[in-house]
């Protein structure tokens, strides 16, 4: 009965995800910051919107990933999590625009916003989640 609440497009997308093999990281390109943001976004989409796994690929439309996950306030939780990750607040207009893109396009749009740097030595901390600056060893608060 749980399944009956999902629209056919959701059922289709869930089926695609369940049938999809693990997605290699290099589909996101060679840039470590882009890969890190892609990983974060995939995990967040899967967790917040109840997708069966995080096997998303760059060509997946954000409109499907964000709006058909079977939850009442689709996309909003993802927008908030992304805002936290980028240390800024995503406006509704910004996020509405993101939702018109593919997943790969969304990552490209979000990546330049992820300009986090070490407050001690100005080292670029994009994608660094260790909590320590790799350059000078200062805590980053990540
Ligand atoms: Zn540093």
Unreliable segments (pLDDT under 50, ≥5 consecutive)?
none
Structural class: mainly alpha
Quaternary organization: single chain
Strand content: under 5%
Biggest sheet layout: none
Bound molecules: zinc ion
Q: List the helices and strands in order.
A: HHHHHH
Mean pLDDT: 82
Radius of gyration in whole Å, from Cα? 16 Å
Number of strands: 0
Number of domains: 1
| Count of individual helical segments | 6
In percent, how helical is the residue content?
Answer: 40-55%
- What coarse outline follows from CA principal-axis ratios? globular
Query: How many angstroms does the end-to-end distance come to?
Result: 41 Å
Description:
- The chain has 142 residues and is an all-alpha fold.
- The chain has one domain (2-113).
- It is 42% helix and 0% strand.
- The protein has helices at residues 8-19, 32-48, 62-67, 76-85, 92-98, 103-110.
- The protein is globular and about 50 Å long.
- Bound molecules: zinc ion.
- Residues 118, 120-121, 123, 133, 135-136, 138 line the site of zinc ion.
Write the layout of secondary structure elements.
Elements: H1 8-19, H2 32-48, H3 62-67, H4 76-85, H5 92-98, H6 103-110
Helix pairs in contact: 2-4, 2-6
The chain binds zinc ion.
Zinc ion binds at residues 118, 120-121, 123, 133, 135-136, 138.
């Amino acid at each position: 009965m749980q399944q009956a609440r999902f629209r056919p497009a959701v059922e289709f997308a869930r089926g695609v995800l369940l049938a999809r093999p693990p997605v290699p990281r290099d589909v996101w390109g060679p840039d470590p910051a882009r890969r890190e943001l892609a990983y974060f976004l995939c995990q967040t989409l899967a967790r917040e919107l109840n997708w069966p796994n995080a096997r998303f690929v760059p060509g997946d439309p954000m409109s499907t990933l964000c709006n058909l996950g079977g939850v009442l306030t689709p996309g909003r939780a993802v927008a908030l999590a992304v805002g936290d990750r980028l240390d800024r607040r995503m406006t509704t207009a910004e996020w509405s625009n993101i939702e018109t893109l593919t997943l790969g396009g969304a990552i490209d749009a979000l990546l330049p916003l992820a300009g986090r740097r070490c407050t001690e030595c100005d080292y670029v901390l994009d994608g660094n989640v260790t909590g320590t600056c790799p350059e000078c060893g200062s805590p980053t608060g990540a």
